[in-house]
Amino acid sequence: MHDILPEAVASWHRIEDVSRQVLTSYGYAEIRTPILEVTDLFKRSIGEVTDIVEKEMYSFEDRNGDSLSLRPEGTASCVRAAIEHGLLVQPQRLWYRGPMFRHERPQRGRYRQFNQIGVEVFGLPGPDIDLEIILITARLWRRLGFAGLRLELNSLGDPDERQAYRNELVAYLSSHGDRLDAESIRRLHTNPLRVLDSKHPETQKVIADAPTLMDHLGESTRSHFQSVCSGLDQAGVPYRLNPRLVRGLDYYNRTVFEWITDDLGAQGTVCAGGRYDGLVEQLGGRPTPAVGFAMGLERMVELLALAGHASDAPVHAYLVAVGEQAQAEAPFLAERLRDALPRLRLMTHCGGGSFKSQFKRADRSGASYALVLGEAELERGIVGIKPLREQTGQQELDFGDLVSFLAGLTKDTLDRGASAQLSGSISTRRLQ
Ligand code: ATP
Ligand code: MG
Hints:
Blueprint: H1 6-25, E1 29-30, E2 36-38, H2 39-46, H3 51-56, E3 59-61, E4 67-70, H4 75-84, E5 92-101, E6 113-122, H5 127-144, E7 150-155, H6 159-175, H7 182-190, H8 201-208, H9 219-235, E8 240-241, E9 253-260, E10 269-275, H10 279-282, E11 290-296, H11 297-306, E12 317-321, H12 324-340, E13 346-348, H13 355-364, E14 369-373, H14 375-380, E15 383-387, E16 395-397, H15 399-410, H16 416-420
Parallel strand pairs: 1-5, 7-8, 12-13, 12-14
Antiparallel strand pairs: 2-4, 3-4, 5-6, 6-11, 7-9, 9-10, 10-11, 14-15, 15-16
Helix pairs in contact: 1-5, 5-9
Residues 73, 102, 104, 109-111, 114, 116, 247-248, 269-272, 294, 296, 298-299 line the site of adenosine-5'-triphosphate.
């Protein structure tokens, strides 16, 4: 579990802001659910024989003796909330963001508390919505400047198709039982499709020649899948069919997909999702088709650094004030600047000291400019402004010109009413 320190937070904001913009632009509404749920919810949805439920959940008994778990993912909670609040009477396009908890072996890209942004759509059965959510993710990567993510796609069919396949898979895997790892042998009869998800190298070799589910799809699942593929073709989003893609959770059917990068080492899946038409009913709701995905934000933050994203200066300006009167004036000058420019990020010096020591702090604040108010400036009705990141000299501006100058940095638009109030204790006389 990690602390995210202030210097890293700008990257998080960028990812969160862009995600929210993009999701809102497709008409998705945010939902916020609790971090704790009853353990049974996850057992019933994710599946008893999965990594998550078998060994990764943070579960405990509360004071009433109920078993609760920190949520390991967001889908089960969204489904529970949608059922509980009667949201399923019409289609819903939802998104969520927040921390998830899994007791995994810690390694690069795998943490015990990590963050996801996810999407869940309820009530839409067709391939059009599968296509839409994949196009959302593709747009996100473009907006964030992520190159080199590849899309892998598979269809898991419907339950009856999977049943037929399951028998054939068990027969094949059993005939290679001597080469499978212990966990896969155990799962061979409880949940054989899970074996396809094994990370064990020798097992993976066996899996490479296993029969594929794709060959067991019926007419309707096949045409659903083809429609998703041709939509992607038309949209110009390249993809690769991966018949071994099964996902780590049991509730998926039909379309499943992952976005993978080679730039992050072994843990390269940045986003994963698919259709889960049976889950709502399985959790006690009316039968409702559903599809969604989740993105791992820690991995996206790493990608953002690789994409060379330059974050904004933490503050635009740092206000330096020397002399008793100037120091008394400074906070109110700052307040008036904030009134005029709501987007201005302005830090005022606190704690007194010489020009030299205040400038040192201004520099360390990361600000682009120092604003200087000394007794002389105060008397002349001007404020000094000195670039901290370039070798140009100090300028002197009256309050109105200062506001206009800073508006150029903040991209605040000044309305006439606001500029009319710009005169005051710093006079409008401009000296140079
Ligand atoms: P795997 O098979 O690699 O364990 P999973 O099936 O458990 O993956 P999902 O539950 O689908 O993964 O999670 C979706 C995304 O959330 C992942 O692609 C990844 O980006 C992120 N993620 C999952 N687990 C972790 C973790 N422990 N730490 C950081 N990110 C994670
Ligand atoms: Mg996992």
